[in-house]
Amino acid sequence: MGFKENLKTELSYSGMLVKELAALSGIKKHTIDNYLNTHNAMPSAEAAVAIARTLGVSVEYLVTGRDDRRDKTIASFSRTIRAVIQEMELLDDNDHQIILALAKALKTHPRNVPEHKEPA
Fold first, then answer.
1. Are 15 and 2 part of one and the same domain?
2. Which residues contact 64 (CB under 8 A, 6 or more apart)?
3. What is the pTM of this model?
4. Whole-number Å distance between alpha carbons of 55 and 44
5. CA distance 19 to 28
6. pLDDT tens readout for residues 16-38
7. Residue 64's domain spans which residues?
8. Degrees, nearest 5: CA angle 74-111-80
9. Do 15 and 56 belong together in one domain?
């Protein structure tokens, strides 16, 4: 598969509309439409990077359909986890530490700890 097909697949997988991708990536909707509808239309390196970052994938994946790092990490996550990762990439290190502490606290919250049953 080529860029066009991989871009379509990622848009579908992410549930993102072309206009959302355009707004988040800074690439004009008309330009993205061309990538999706024109045979062999390839973006500039700068545009490919912006699109890949917005979708949470590598440029290599968009161009070739293969990325060993992606196959072992991002692709195995649920859509919700991928969305959390995308949002976290926009935050600073201090915010990352706050969110990490919150996640650890939630993990040990009583509702997430299996109930201890006394032997009968």
1. yes
2. 6
3. 0.57
4. 16
5. 8
6. 899 999 999 999 999 999 999 98
7. 1-76
8. 20
9. yes
